[in-house]
Structure to design on (92 residues):
């Protein structure tokens, strides 16, 4: 858990993560800003995750379209008469 406290008997402020000292700053506002930034998820990571989700959705849509095309082609191939399978074709 992140917390802000005075750093010893000085005029500085410390940002602590549990027992770990994260930063020592001069102004309490600076410590509060560090606290806010550490608590918030990184913007770049969030944007990259959103882009990855969009790309995955687009790829899934493409895969569904290709599957529909493959089913249609397979159905058309089954409906077409096969060469050599006609009634009087190969002497019998």
């Amino acid at each position: 858990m992140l917390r802000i406290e005075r750093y010893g008997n000085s005029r500085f402020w410390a940002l602590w993560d549990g027992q770990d000292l994260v930063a020592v700053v001069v102004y309490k506002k600076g410590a509060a800003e560090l606290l806010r930034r550490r608590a918030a998820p990184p913007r770049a990571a969030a944007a990259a995750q959103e882009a990855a989700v969009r790309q995955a959705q687009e790829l899934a849509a493409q895969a569904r379209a290709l599957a529909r095309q493959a089913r249609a082609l397979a159905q058309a191939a089954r409906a077409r008469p096969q060469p050599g399978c006609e009634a009087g074709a190969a002497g019998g």
Remarks:
- The longest strand covers residues 20-25.
- Strands lie at 2-6, 13-17, 20-25.
- The helical segments are 28-39, 43-79.
- The chain has two domains: 2-39, 42-78.
